[in-house]
Every structure is written in C-alpha cells, then in structure tokens.
C-alpha cells in the first residue's frame, strides 16, 4: 500500500531510493523520497493500523507528507527549531510574529503531550516536537491532531495494543522529559512574547520606516504568509527578496496616495534599492 499511495507504483518489488541529499536527481516533486527506510517501515505500520481501525488512509498520506518535509529540512540543513526571537517578522503595529493554537488544537496537543505514549512511541521525538510546537510547524501540519493522537500509541513497539483498545489514561500527571517535547508543551500555554520592533533606540515606527503599512490588509496577510513559509525553510535569500518586494509594493501605494508628503516619499525611496532577482 505504501508503494502505491506514496510512490505511485503498483510494482511490489519496487525499492524507491531514500534521498540523503537534495540534488537534481530528486527534483521529481515527490517529497516521500526523503523518508528513510525506517520511516517507510513505520508508515507501512501506520497504513495497517488505519485499515484495521477504519481510519481514512489520507491521514496516513498526510502523516507521511509531514514526516517527509521534516526529513527534507534535515537533509538540506534547514531550520527545524523554534523561529521565535530570530524571525524578524512583525505586524503593522510592530508586534513579533507569534504561533498560537486555537482552543481546540491547544486542547488536543496538550492531551498528546501529557500522555506517556508520546515518549515511548516509535515515531521520531524530534519530528513530534517539530510538529506539535506552534512556534515551529504546529500551525502548518497536514495530518490532523486527532489522527496523530491515535498514531502515537498505535505505533509503539513496547505496547501491542491498538490506540482504540489501549488502557485508559490515568489521572496521574505526565510531563515529557524530552527537551523538544517539553518545549512544545510549554509553548501551548506560553506563546512567544518578544519585544516590539523599534526604528531607533526608543523611537516608534512610522510610515517612512515601514512603507508596507500603506498596503491593504489582504496584501499584508499575503506577505506575512510568504514570510512564514520562507522562515520554515530558513530561506534567508527568500526573506531578503520578500523584504524588497513588500517595500516596493508599499512605496507604489505611497505614490498613489495623495496624502503622502513628498519629503516622506523621497526619504523612503532613498532607502530602497532595486530588487535583486538572484535572491
């Protein structure tokens, strides 16, 4: 099943190579190639569990996609840790970007992280810490937290019981000892709190320093989404390009605004360079 669903082949003898580097040989666009052999065996178990329990197989596909993306980041030396404090991303009021779960997701993630199976599972703990931390990838996961909550105990060698038939949780509190998992649990109730952006030592921001304040709310959301995607991959060159593009877009809006002071526009133009398309 893994071969047909993840590698799109019906050849039972096929052995797709596990990518250990990002080269021209793996530009097919199939992220599953970055799954290790151990990951693939784990996914086979996940498909077996999903079939026997009646779970939608697409949840396993999504689980594999998230894990493959994590492996891709590892292989390419990109960021798999928190971006808090180093993102450089702020909203129009100067507040730093913060990853925060909605109440339903927060409840599910806390339930996952306070169950002892999160540390006994065969699923990579680093991946779980990456996937469950709202300041890393918790807001962009493909697999549902509901499905993940079942996969974690089901994919545990130390416990042959399925997630649906596992013993009920005890009232005893559990806190993960794994540093990454502990940090993910902490972040659920303690979103990153960073200092507001200041143009100078204590100077407030102004339109001359932030041309993108002239963009519409929809345009700002689109730019923020682009920033967040680049951050997940630690793509510094892309961040620089987005900086330039958002600034130039804001300047274009300033030029169209009859209320813009000529001196303000000239000051902003003087600080702006042409876009470097090589970024």
Care to describe what's here?
With 279 residues, this protein is mainly α. The chain has three domains: 2-75, no CATH class; 103-189, no CATH class; 211-270, no CATH class. The chain is built from eleven helices and no strands. It has helices spanning 2-6, 37-53, 57-75, 103-113, 117-120, 125-132, 145-154, 179-189, 217-232, 236-256, 262-270. It is globular and about 70 Å long. It starts with a helix and ends in a 9-residue tail after the last helix.
Give the number of DSSP strands.
0
User: Structural class of the secondary structure composition?
Assistant: mainly alpha
Radius of gyration: 23 Å
What low-confidence regions span 5 or more consecutive residues with pLDDT below 50?
159-167, 199-209, 273-279
Summed up, what is this model?
This protein is mostly helical and 279 residues long. The protein has helices at residues 2-6, 37-53, 57-75, 103-113, 117-120, 125-132, 145-154, 179-189, 217-232, 236-256, 262-270.
Label this structure with key terms.
mainly alpha, disordered C terminus
């Amino acid at each position: 099943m893994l071969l047909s669903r993840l590698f799109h082949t019906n050849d039972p003898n096929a052995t797709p190579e596990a990518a250990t580097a990002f080269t021209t040989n793996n530009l097919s666009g199939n992220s599953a190639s970055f799954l290790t052999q151990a990951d693939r065996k784990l996914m086979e178990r996940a498909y077996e569990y999903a079939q026997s329990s009646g779970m939608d197989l697409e949840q396993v596909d999504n689980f594999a996609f998230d894990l493959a993306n994590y492996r891709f980041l590892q292989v390419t030396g990109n960021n798999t840790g928190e971006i808090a404090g180093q993102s450089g991303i702020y909203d129009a009021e100067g507040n730093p970007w913060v990853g925060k779960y909605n109440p339903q997701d927060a409840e599910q993630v806390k339930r996952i992280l306070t169950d002892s199976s999160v540390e006994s599972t065969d699923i990579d703990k680093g991946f779980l810490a990456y996937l469950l931390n709202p300041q890393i990838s918790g807001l962009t996961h493909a697999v549902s937290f509901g499905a993940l909550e079942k996969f974690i105990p089901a994919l545990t060698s130390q416990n042959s019981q399925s997630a649906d038939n596992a013993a009920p949780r005890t009232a005893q509190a559990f806190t993960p000892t794994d540093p990454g998992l502990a940090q993910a649990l902490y972040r659920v109730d303690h979103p990153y709190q960073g200092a507001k952006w200041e143009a100078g030592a204590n100077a407030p921001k102004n339109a001359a320093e932030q041309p993108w304040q002239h963009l519409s709310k929809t345009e700002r959301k689109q730019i923020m989404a682009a920033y967040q995607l680049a951050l997940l991959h630690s793509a510094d060159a892309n961040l620089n390009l987005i900086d330039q593009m958002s600034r130039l877009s804001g300047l274009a809006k300033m030029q169209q605004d009859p209320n813009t002071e000529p001196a303000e526009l000239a000051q902003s133009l003087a600080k702006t360079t042409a876009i470097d398309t090589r970024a």
